[in-house]
C-alpha cells in the first residue's frame, strides 16, 4: 500500500487508450493479403500485450509461425500498415483525460510504458494527450526487453529520482501486474481494459479499478477502497 503515491506508470493499450479497432483492423488486412484466416476484432484483446512480434506469431497459422523469415516479413507489413492507421479510431477511454488532469493537479508524476514499438507509442500519446506533460513515454526498443521484464520500468524510476516504492503501475493485464511487482511498484488492475479480472489478480494486482477515476478514490482511502460495480 502506498499512503502518498508520487508517480504513476501507465500501460497504453487497454489502459489509457482503446486501440483495438485500429490494431485488429490492420492485422486482419495483412492476414487477408496472405490468404490467412482473420479474427473478430474483439479477439485481438486476448492476443495483445507481449509486443508486436508476439502478436504476429499468434495471428498467423502455426506452420507460418515456424518460419522466422516469414514471421519477420509479415510483422514488418503489419507494423507499416498499422503505423498509417493507428489513430483512425483509437481514442482515450472515458474518464482517462479527467484522471490525468486530476493526477497532474496533485503533483503526481505521470509516465507511460508499452510493449508496442517506441515510435508508435510516442506518436499515439502525443496525439491523444497533447496537453499532458508525461515525464516519460516509452515503447519497446531493441535495447530493452519486453514487459514483464522490469528493466524498462526500473530505468524510468532511476531517471525520475522517485523510489519505486512510491510508484503505482496501472495496467490491464497480468503482464502489467507482474511488471509492476518486479519493479517494486504497486500494481493496480484496469478492469475497463482488455483482459480479465482473473488474469490481473493472478498476476498480483493489489486492487482492481472498475473505472479510471477509481484510482483517485484508491489513493484517497486505500485501506477501505471498494471498487464500484
Automatic annotation (TrEMBL):
InterPro entries on file: HAD-like_hydrolase_sf, HAD-like_sf, HAD-SF_hydro_IA, HAD_2, HAD_sf, PGP-like_dom2
Keyword Transmembrane appears in the UniProt entry: no
Enzyme class: hydrolase
Keywords: Hydrolase
Cited SUPFAM superfamilies: HAD-like
MF term (GO), any: phosphoglycolate phosphatase activity
Pfam families the UniProt entry points to: HAD_2
Biological processes per GO annotation: DNA repair
EC number(s) from the headed UniProt entry: 3.1.3.-
Single GO cellular component term: cytosol
Entry keyword Hydrolase: yes
Descriptive protein name: N-acetylmuramic acid 6-phosphate phosphatase
